[in-house]
Amino acid sequence: MGTRFAAFALKLTSLHDYYLRLLHGNQPIPSGLDMANTVKFCSQMLLSLLKEVREAPLEMVKSEKCDAERMALYPNLDYKQLYNALTQLIDVIPAIHIGLQAFGQALLQCLACLLPFLDHDMIDNIPYLTASTISVLPVEHHQDIVNNLCFYILPFTITRKTEDGSENAASQSIAAVIMMIFQYSSNPAHHCQLLECLMALKPGVVKDLLCVIAYGTAPARASAAKLLFYYWPSFNPNLFDRRAVLMKFANDLTPFVCQRDSCPNAGNAEAGKVCYDHRISITFANETPPPLYLCIECANEIHRTHPNMFYDILHPMQQVSMVCENKNCRATDKSAISVCFSTECASYNGNHPIRYCEQCHNIRHNKRRGGDHVYHTALPHISKMDSQTQTYMIQAIVSLLKEAEPLRFPGSGSGGGGSGGGAGSGSQFDSASLEERQLLGRYGVWLLVGLCTPDQEISIEILGRLLSMLFHWFHVTAYSFDGTKKSLMHLIFSVGNLTLRIFIHLIT
């Protein structure tokens, strides 16, 4: 055992040496293949140590009060130093020119293997650390990064219970995780996969999504706004035609396949069961961090020797229905007002998230049942939101309406108002992308019209800011880029009544 520990310490020294040589450009520059082999050794060491533990460390990770007991289960190795070494290597990934793909795969695997060995402060940081690798790793790793987050990192971090009952730091960092993935991945399926995972774990994830819309980068804001209207039940079904403005995002979602080493359908069989027992996981998947995700065939085979160890996996939404998906629904109004991600409710819908009308929602979620279910309802009126969500909502509306402004570049004429700016930027950007950017303003208009109608509980300052931004949007959309369709004009008429109501409310 002492030899193994000495080898582990030597590998940590090697990782630090790799970092310094890449940072300063010292010769010989280490290749990604050499670094990958070193990181793989650390992963295998962690898995071998984890397999010797009799307790359930994955369950203990979910509670901060079990941290001391959990850390006492392992040999006294410098796990923090390994975490710091991996963090440093992420910073110098752009300097790796050979074997980057192999190193990226080993890095992601090691981060997931390291999770059960970390203290609470590093556990809180690991979701964002994993997400940040998407900014430096090649596109081929984007799916692996999202899978790592959704299947190995987020289920054990953002749901962690703190000792004082407050929201943990990992959960508070979700807005940054969303922004990072939405910014650097251009694949909408990755955005859908991440958001559905978060919706299954965190009831208030809509606040994080509004934060991204309010303060995120332009690509992240655009994707977040579309997904907000795509997934959340409509707050006003008569405000817009949902089918006319929303496309199906997740049609090219890559299924997560069985992780068993000897799966007869390796690479093709979609995972349908999960086993949280770390010893079973490492036994049947030697190089994969726990938990173990299995296809139905492999799960049935292992079930014969290890019964009652498997749980259903929540599958992605096949479609976003606007009506109740309960097959026994007897309501008169079948409009969907909630979507539930709990395994109990999903079992009635083929293990997919299920949408309920108001009557079915109240039957499934009340004081007697469904108290622990994670479900999402339509956004309430802005006056019913808490102060932080209200701030995010206001800034989100403002940011979306500002997207209608034409892009300006050095050398373009500043005169001529909006039309001059549009002409200056139209020569450098495709007209379709310019119109799409303008059309983002409609999401802000719909949020404004649907959720910000004036009443006695909304302050005059909020209404004044929204009204001024709306007038600015009127001014910008009065002009049109050359060659673009004037498809925004009908929105001006849809908000005219609201503008009048806000104005009357302000002067009275």
From TrEMBL:
Q: Which InterPro entries match?
A: UNC79
Q: What is this protein called?
A: Protein unc-79 homolog isoform X2
Native source species = Ceratina calcarata
